[in-house]
Design brief:
About 50% of the residues lie in helices and about 20% in strands.
């Protein structure tokens, strides 16, 4: 499994389940942190009228569903990804795991993630549509 799939799966394993919007914002924060720690990102990010998006996050979550790791459930307000198998273990390089864990600690609880991300859009990581 490639590193991008492992990171997304690791996030879902740690959270148990996550709606697609929250997953999108968490992956952006991972990429933003990763850019400053290692100089690269996992996804291509765009900011458009609809907000911050990387369509590859949707693709990877759907691939993990097709591979049997996740279930995709239509929730009240959004699509929710849940672990299909509880025994899933995901190996990440220590530095990458530390980055992801740092982000997950930062966003746990009642953080309004959409608002937090909107205040922290980094032009080094996100391409603004039309620019």
């Amino acid at each position: 499994m490639d590193v991008v799939r492992r990171v997304v799966l690791y996030v879902v394993v740690r959270l148990g389940e996550v709606d697609v919007k929250r997953l999108m914002y968490i992956m952006y924060l991972v990429d933003r942190e990763l850019f400053y720690v290692a100089g690269f990102t996992l996804f291509l990010w765009r900011y458009t009228f609809g907000g911050l998006r990387s369509f590859a996050v949707y693709d990877v979550a759907d691939e993990l569903t097709d591979l049997g790791y996740l279930d995709k459930v239509v929730g009240e307000r959004d699509i929710v990804y849940r672990l299909r198998r509880k025994e899933v273990e995901v190996e990440l390089h220590k530095q990458l795991r530390d980055v992801v864990d740092k982000v997950l600690v930062k966003v746990e609880g009642d953080v309004n993630l959409e608002e937090y991300v909107a205040r922290n859009i980094d032009p080094n990581v996100v391409k603004i549509a039309g620019v």
